[in-house]
Amino acid sequence: EAEMAAIMAVTCGPGCETSEIFIDMALKYEHSGLEVQVTAKNGKAVSLAGEVGLLSRDITISSEIGESNSKDGGHMQIHETLDTQTIHGVEIVGLGIEGELGKYPMHFHLCRDQQGSSFSSNTIYNGLQRGIVIHQTDNMLVEDNVLHNIVGHGLVLEDGVEVGNVIRRNIGFRNFVQDRLIVKDGRKQTDDKPSMLWLSNPTNIVEYNVCSGSDLAGIWYELETFVTGVSKERPEYEGLNPQLVELGSFVGNEAHSNHGFGFQTYPDGYRPLQQAVFTDYFGWRNRIGVFLHESTNLVVENAFLVDNRESAIFFRETSSLVFRDSVIVGKSETWNRCPSQGAIAMQGSRKDSSEENGTQFVNLRMDKFADCSHALVSMNTGNPRRTGFFRASTAMIGVFADDQANIFNFDSAVTAEDRRFDFYAIRIEGGNLFGGRSGYLTPTSLVPQMWGANRCETVGNYSSFCTNTCQRSISIAIPTNVGSTYSMKLTRLSDGGESITEKLKAKRKQEVFHLNVLGDEAYIVSLASSQAYPREFVVDYEDGEGACSGTVDLLFEQNARNYKGDEDNTNFFLAPCRGGEVSYPAGTPFFYDYCVGDDFYRRVRLPAGPMTNRPSGLRIRRDYTIPKTVSPCSQSHYGHCRLVGKEEEWLYTDETFTGVQAATISESFREDDFDDSAWKSARAAFGYSEPKLNTIFEDRHISYYFRKTFNVSGEAMHCLDGPNASLKLRYGDGFIAYINGVRVLSKNLGSTAPIAESLATAKGVQNKFEEFPLAIYNGLLREGSNTIAVEVHRYEKERASFKSVAFDLQLEPTIKKACPTYINY
Question: What is the C-alpha separation between 182 and 100, in angstroms, rounded?
């Protein structure tokens, strides 16, 4: 309902405290010019008022559009220049060529670093294809612009590599479906589902923008796992995954009157390695205020959602998500309809890795729903075998609602059979729901099997509220780096050996099986011997609140002799998932060996006991191998003579070196007697935002320095096959490695000793390990203590805003013969 009119006159209003504006037409629609105040019961308030944007500027650039070329206008491109660019106070009308890549009203094309450049106080309207397109351009200011009547997306970050741009205080109202779509990389682009802000990389500053009247969305983070367009050919963007990068800033943005979503992450979501916080979002009178899809590790805080037509929130297959300190208003005084799906709609809560938790609503108010018939919160299963649904960590903490009669609605399709796959419950704590009592909300159909009828009461459609009880689960995560189907049999012993599942298939994401724990139970996980398995399994414990005092016994079992993977497994190694120390009573029997005929089996047992005395998770990792020609039932155990393994602890410094230190650090830090007592200690891999990091650097430096001591046993010395060894590195972008002070290997750095400010000459391998043959000179390695030192430098063409540093290392000699390894049982 946005309208455009010409101003005929401006006069001084009463007392000249206001102005009166006279336009050339009668308005077709009613527009709220005066502020409509909406106040929640906790005192928070917002104002509902339409925006007015002045389109005229002193400089006009326009296209003459006739009937024969109504979708073909002019277009503007800004290319990289030596000087900064300032475009201010320009009126851009009728530009763009629909369906042609690169033909937009304003296109910043391959400008690279544009620190100091700005596009501000301009207007773009009646645009024929998009509005402002930022393409492989970083660090520029886009501020105080007005976009109106745009075909396709309004403001676009094109290839997913654009970072550091400031997008602030822009107003966009009304953009339309594009009929003739752009084709890029062989795929049609999504301008037939237009949004006012279309963002393909989150590492930008997005603040105080207003997006309204779009045919689909106000703000859309559409993130791929790779970069697109011409950027995918550039080496500096190799391995960049926009779904994983950090959020620049999202503060004070407003989306209203959009036909679809105010703000969304769709279809593949946003899954940053560092928690991303979206602050002060205001979404009103959209179909759905916030739509988060397949997203994790996000926080939405201090949001105000008012009068959204279907629901304020729709979360679909989310995890590790927090929605806090916010207000939802169902039907304000000037709005005549209730949301058709209530305040919150949720479909599934996926758990793709052992590190992910449920979705939590904390300190939330739901006001002005008393006259509405639909439940405040709707829970839909989706596909429980795919999404995992709701677990003990899915919770509503400190939630208040003015409608206590119709709070929750669970999907009626949930059956007792579904309990095997995960919880169907949400933890309630604090607030005023159910009279302020704490407990669990669950489908009524599951009460007899999971809770016991004497602990539960029916509330709403298909729902029951259960108190004086608890929930807990075990999740078994299997990384899918094998690339084939693998068999896993899970048996609940209390059911007389009933098999819960027979097979899990490798998918594009980590396979996770959720186990609902009922009372004092024991389970066995049997792994088929004929399949190639990943190296690591992860077991994650998840306790609900209440008296979880029972015990759980979980056992893993594998036929080691007939194992057909990369290695013949003979042992399991247990370690905490999330750092810290885990101690067990002396003599705890972790491992059991037994033979059936010529087959050798190894079983690892997680000791039974109250869940509260266990770590939050364990990694079960295969660490030893045996020669394929040796029968483990008649021979000794053997293992690799590994010297330095992946993901081990390293000493490092991220100090900025200057002057003499910058010139000499490369010479000094490699020596055995170097004083590293002030250096930090952390676990590899290190980096900025690449996948699978254990230590993330906050500061951005040109170079980083790492040291580690390791022991070489007499048995390991015996294993060395002549002078050869294998050094595997994950690095970005150049490195030099030293053993006992001697330079043994380098890549992408010169032959002379670099200084701290030296830049690498090429891009390194950041997301995977590269193997190098290494000559172990006579006398270089010694029995006992040895020192390895590595310096890592950034690529010379990298910008400071792009994350490129990465480091992890594995060193092992070529095996001459199997080394005897003594395993403690």
Answer: 6
- First-to-final CA distance of the chain: 74
Select from 245, 246, 173, 167 the least CA-distant residue to 207: 167
The DSSP bridge pattern shows strands 304-306 and 344-347 to be unpaired
Q: What three-state secondary structure class fits 213? A: strand
Q: What angle do CA 396, 397, 402 make, to 5 degrees?
A: 75
What is the edge-to-edge ordering of all strands in the sheet holding 686-687? Answer: 695-696, 686-687, 806-815, 720-732, 770-775
Q: Please state the pTM of the whole predicted model.
A: 0.66
Q: Which residue has better confidence, 355 or 451?
A: 451
Residue 604 confidence (pLDDT): 53
Burial class (CB within 10 angstroms; exposed 0-12, middle 13-18, buried 19+) of 17? exposed
Shortest CA distance to 646 belongs to which of 740, 580, 727, 568?
727
pLDDT digits over 182-238, tens only? 999 999 999 999 999 999 999 999 999 999 999 999 999 999 999 999 999 998 999
190 DSSP 8-state letter: S
612-630 in b/e form (b: 16+ CB < 10 A) is eebbbbbbbbbbbbbeeee
Low-confidence winner among 253-262, 798-807, 811-820 (lowest mean pLDDT):
811-820
For 141-156, what is each residue's pLDDT tens digit?
Answer: 999 999 999 999 999 9
Which residue matches tokens 């805080």?
Answer: 301
Q: Residue 377 corresponds to which tokens in the numbers above?
A: 């919160």
Q: What is the per-residue pLDDT across 1-20, written as a single tens digit (0 to 9) for each?
A: 788 899 999 888 777 777 88
What are the structure tokens assigned to 514, written together? 């959720």
- CB count in 10 Å sphere of residue 65: 17
Token pair of 204 as six digits = 């930008």
For residue 733, whether the previous peptide bond is cis, meaning omega lies within 30 degrees of 0, is: yes
pLDDT score for 258: 96
Q: Are 225 and 206 in contact (CB under 8 A)?
A: no
Q: How confident is the model at residue 812 (pLDDT cuts 50, 70, 90)?
A: confident
Element housing 813 (H / E): strand 806-815
Q: How far is CA 170 from CA 173, 208, 247, in A?
A: 10, 7, 19
pLDDT of res. 467 = 83
Cβ neighbours of residue 607 closer than 8 Å, sequence gap 6 or more: 584, 588, 589, 590
The Cα 780–Cα 718 span in angstroms is 15
Highest mean pLDDT among 54-68, 168-182, 340-354, 427-441: 168-182
Sequential DSSP letters for 325-370:
EEEEESS-TT-----TT-SEEEE-----STT---EEEEEEEEES-T
Residue pair 663/755 in contact by the 8 Å Cβ criterion: yes
Q: Within 13 A of 700's CA, how many CA atoms are on the CB side?
A: 11
Q: How many CA atoms lie within 13 A of 431 on its CB side?
A: 25
Q: Are 88 and 95 in contact (CB under 8 A)?
A: no
In a 13 Å sphere around the CA of 3, the CA atoms on its Cβ side amount to: 14
Rounded CA-CA distance 243/232 in Å is 16
The angle formed by the CA atoms of residues 727, 733 and 737, to the nearest 5 degrees, is: 35
What is the dihedral sign for C-alpha 590, 593, 594, 598?
positive
d(CA 395, CA 409): 15
**Backbone phi, then psi, for 473, in 5-degree steps?**
-150, 165
Residue 144 neighbours by CB under 8 Å, 6+ apart: 120, 121, 168, 169, 170
Q: Provide φ and ψ at 129, rounded to 5°.
A: -160, 105
Rg of the chain over Cα atoms, rounded to whole angstroms, equals 31
Amino acid of residue 84: T
| Residue 557 host element (H or E) | strand 552-559
